[in-house]
Amino acid sequence: MDSFNKKRSYIIIGLMLLIVLIYLIRIFYLQVIDDYYKKSADENALRYITEHPARGLIYDRNDSLLVYNEPVYDLMIVPKELRSFDTMDLCRILDIDKETLLKRIEKARNYSPLIPSTFDQQMSKEDYGYLQEKLYKFPGFFVQSRTLRYYPEPIAAHVLGYVGEVNQEILENDSYYQLGDYIGISGIEKTYEQELRGIKGKRVVLVDVHNREKGSYRNGEEDVVAVAGTPLWSTLSLTLQRYGELLMTNKRGSIVAIEPATGEILCIVSTPSYDPNLLVGKNRGKNYSMLSQDKEKKPLYDRALQAMYPPGSTFKLANGLIGQEEGVINPSSVYGCSGGYNIGNHTIACHHSGPVNLIGAVKSSCNTYFCRAFYNIVSNKKKYKTVQQGYQAWKDHINALGFGKTFDTDLPFESKGIIPSVDYFNKLYNGRWNGNSIVSMGIGQGEAATTPLQMANLLAIIANRGYYIKPHIIRAIGTKDNYSDRFTEKIDAKISSQYYIPVIQGMEMAVLSGTAVSAQIPGIRVAGKTGTAQNPHGRDHSVFACFAPIEKPQIVVFVLIENGGWGSVVAAPIASLIMELYLTGEVKRKDLETNIIAMSLM
Amino acid sequence: MFIENRQKVSKGFDPLLIVIYIILVVVGWMAVFSSCYDPVSFVNIFDIGTAYGKQLIWIGTSVLIAIGILLIDARIYQNYSYHIYIFFLVLMLLVLIVGTEISGAKAWIKVGGFSIQPSEFMKMATALALAKFLNEGKTSSEKRNIWLLSFLIILIPILIVFLQRDTGSALVFFSFIILFYREGMSGRLFLYGAFAIFIFIFTLYFNEIYAIALLIFIFIVTTLISRTDKKKLIKNAFLLGLSIAFVFLVNIAYNHVFQPHQKQRIESMLGKTSDPKGADFNLNQSKIAIGSGGFFGKGYLNGTQTKFDFVPEQSTDFIFCSIGEEWGFIGSFVILSLYLALIIRIILLSERHRNPFVRYYGYGIAGIIFFHFIINIGMTIGLLPIIGIPLPFISYGGSSLWAFTSMLFIFIKLNDS
Predict the structure, then answer these.
(1) Which is nearest to B371 in space by CA: B406, B396, B399, B407?
(2) How far apart are CA A114 and CA A212, in angstroms?
(3) How many other β-carbons are positioned within 10 Å of the β-carbon of residue B8?
(4) Is residue A113 over pLDDT 90?
(5) What pLDDT is attached to residue A190?
């Protein structure tokens, strides 16, 4: 019996050995073979905290700050770490009632008792300072700082753009961004996102299971310091931009001023506009919906880049150039004008009459002259067999002059404008059409549509006598002198330089004694062209295009005032004031300035 | 050579057991220190406000207890076994009335600033009482009733522990089956037991329909093998009926008797549910801690998981995580080997001893220690459901350390007699 039972002791020991062996195999598997747990461990105890860098600053061309950052402070709460505290005291500091306080705690607790959530957003510096002193009294609360965009002056809202939280699509396509990150959504903020966003930093800290930080991991060996975003120097002139927006008070429309030799945009105004500070911070959402729901003013709409207007008489400049290049007109060729251009029984009226050459036609904005010139370009039987070929030749020219396409420059959301294709007219007229069918395009009416930026660029081509550099908004990245070489290419407008001379002469005469005398600036030779863009919805748009000084152009200005009537009434004086300020540094014609600012066209 | 040894009156206290004891206690203290150590608040190792400071007190008093036990005449333990058993039984009943509840179990009695858990001592007391009973029972003629009465000795503390809602400790009392097996209890009973456990797990993992289908399949197969024997057929049919009844019982027990957290633990062990941040949190954190240790471990005090409270109860029931993380597979291997060596040594010494009382007691405590460490480590590595019992000699806690120290040193003393 005893020896039989003694055998059982070996069975017992054997079974125990077996069980321990199974355990060892299991432990060996967990510890050595399977690396799932090692990875989990890293996620568990090390917290990778992303340090958000401040976005890059944006300066104007004269080093004045356009956009900067201000730190804001969020009060964070970790419900699990809450202990009893003086609720009244906290309520007083945050200026909330006890009910709100309890509601917020409850909300945070529902989200997660351990993960910090925002308790109070964007406290003022004063509140923060006061609270910081007393924070020890409120266990479970801590303050986290981040930066927000601020604008010293409420100008250039459209071109500067705004930032907002990344959406799901971006999150899925770009691993750089994480939920809650900010990204440029429009304007410079969007096109220069890469430069402005900086480099996110990383801090690795040990945390306990309650999310409490317990110091840096390996003394911060793996930490990466956040690098602030690269500062940008814009081509904008703060003073000019501010002045442009001032002149546009109570007017709907756009001003675009460009330095022709460089393509740098000096000011780009679209009104009605908004204070960019509205789209920042606490009330961003509320303000955004308020702005986007303003159907009457459409303040978010960037007219300078996106609005497509009939180009009006300023388009005659382009046709004058193309006509010469195509050989259908020359400076001495004279067309008679009997107060209109007849197409069958329809007449395009002209407010002037008598025979004119090109210079005179530009000066007096003769409809008859440019209708005839356009007809001759398109229906040039000697050169082109069909109207289609003729129109295509015109279209190629007009494209080369920057119309009917985007510049793909550093401004987002440009619109192309409309320069219809041959097919479009073939369909419209069942293939049977000639120059007269579309002759209204010769004077900037009809199907063609252009943006203020494209029109300003045409002026730059004329001022440069034959080429343009893509209009752009940023001149230097990183440091003030580190000029970006992205926009240095001179793009040939495919019009021989001698053809610009009569056009410019006509423009100068228009200012001196023609349609544009209201654009004169004492002591400066100005070339200008008025326009009146027909508006089927109401009063015509007032348009003016000009540059100065003629001998060495430094600025081109295009102004469009919706429902402003004749170009010479509103648009021309505005353009002239802009040029005066830019070229002389001050505006002497205070009366004109006051009148313009006071003028309401809305 | 053995005979010579045995014939000596005193062969001295077994040095191997004492050395293993010392190693385990020291390793235990180091692990407790590591899992609670916070450089910011660290004052010194005697800081009474910390677990490691308190554990030093428990270790110090345990040494005193051990010395005391070794000084007392060995016969006292044998003669007063029943008294000790009754004493702790009464203490346990007292706990039910005036006890303090800690994490759901009303198993603690407050003495001064400290809490004592009588059920820890009850295991040792039961082992003594059982040893005494078996020792006397062997000499009496009523062998039939021995097993029943021995079961009763175990069953009473089990019932009280259950009433204290301390399921883990109750399970440990089943470790005495090792003793019973050694002392001649039918091996068939163990087979039935193993089969019952298998059916239990099978029923919970699949469902009662599959379980019954399996039982019928087994019945048909066995019947086909021995179809001629009519008597066996009836017996098998009876067993089948019994098994099917058992399946239903399991089902009913599982759905109506078990607490939700117990069900959760069983289901998570069976791999039926996974909820790493919720119910499986402990287990998952525990596996992450051990798994991240690798072969050589992260080094002492370099663990990241077993600090900062990632693993709950990391200084008590989940202390093995700390060892696994910081000492790696090497450390785990050494600890398991030490336990195995301790238990096998106790069994071998028990077998060699002339006095059957010592053998009974030895097997009793070998079973208890084995169950404790197998259940404890098994739960940390996800092989067993989470059952809150301490790792002998290592886990933080006064009652546990005192009880296991007493248990072991009484054996060392008895072995020397």
Answers:
(1) B407
(2) 9
(3) 9
(4) no
(5) 93
pLDDT band at A483, cuts 50/70/90?
Answer: confident
Distance CA A2, CA A489 (A): 105
What is the sign, positive or negative, of the torsion defined by CA atoms of A580, A585, A589, A594?
Answer: positive
Cα distances (Å, whole numbers) of residue B109 to B74, B91, B397: 29, 9, 14
CA distance B279 to B264: 7
Asked whether A226 and A72 are in contact (CB, 8 A), the reply is no
Distant-in-sequence, close-in-space partners of A481: CB < 8 Å, separation ≥ 6: none
Q: What does the alpha-carbon distance between residue A258 and residue A268 come to, in Å, rounded to a whole number?
A: 9
- Are A494 and A325 contacting, i.e. CB atoms less than 8 angstroms apart? yes
Closest listed residue to residue B394, CA positions, set B337, B345, B340, B339: B339
Which helix or strand (DSSP H or E) is residue B115 part of?
strand B114-116
End-to-end CA distance of chain A: 115
Cα B259–chain centre separation: 21
What lies within 8 Å, CB to CB, of B331 at 6+ separation is B293, B297, B323, B324
Q: Residue B243's pLDDT is what?
A: 84
The per-type count for chain B, helices as H runs and strands as E runs, is 17, 3
Q: Helices B15-36 and B51-71: crossing angle, nearest 10°?
A: 160
Nearest beta carbon to residue B383 from set A4, A6, A26: A26
Q: Are A5 and B182 in contact (CB < 8 Å)?
A: yes
Helix, strand or coil, per DSSP, at residue A294: coil
The DSSP call for residue A581 is H
For residue A23, which residues of chain B lie inside 8 Å, CB to CB? 336, 374, 377-378, 381, 383
Q: Chain B partners of A9 at a C-beta cutoff of 8 Å? A: 182, 347, 351
What letter represents residue A279's amino acid? Answer: L
β-strand partners of A76 = A118, A142
Contact A36 B291 (CB under 8 A): yes
- Terminal-residue alpha carbon distance, chain B: 18
Question: What is the rounded average pLDDT of the residues A548-558?
Answer: 94
> Of A53-62, A84-93, A275-284, B352-361, which gets the smallest average pLDDT?
A84-93
**The CA-based dihedral angle spanning residues B140, B144, B146, B149, taken in that order and rounded to the nearest 10 degrees:** -130
* Token output for A416: 């192309």
Distances (CA, A) of B143 to A9, A279, A307, B135: 22, 92, 107, 12
pLDDT of residue B228: 65
B370 contacts A32? CB cut-off 8 A: no
Closest-CA residue of chain A to B284 = A37
Give A211's contacts (C-beta < 8 A, 6+ positions apart): A47, A78, A80, A114, A115, A116
Most confident region among A130-134, A445-449, A563-567 by mean pLDDT: A445-449
Select from B66, B114, B122 the least CA-distant residue to B93: B122
Residues of chain B with pLDDT under 70: 1-11, 38-41, 103-104, 113, 137-144, 227-228, 264-265, 267-281, 304-313
**How far is A367 from A365, CA to CA, in rounded Å?**
6
Q: In this prediction, what percent of chain A has a pLDDT beyond 70?
A: 92
Report, as an integer, the average pLDDT of A586-600. Answer: 91
Residue A113 distance to chain B (closest CA, Å)? 13
What single-letter DSSP state applies at residue A63? S
Give percent above pLDDT 90 in chain A.
47
Chain B hits for A17, Cβ within 8 Å: 340
> What confidence tens digit (pLDDT) does each residue in B246-279 have?
888 887 877 777 777 777 667 666 655 555 444 4
- State ipTM: 0.85
User: Is there a contact between B373 and B192 (Cβ–Cβ < 8 Å)?
Assistant: no
- Asked if the Cβ–Cβ distance from B291 to A37 is below 8 Å, we say yes
Q: Tokens 């568990």 label which residue? A: A44
pLDDT of A485 > 90? The answer is no
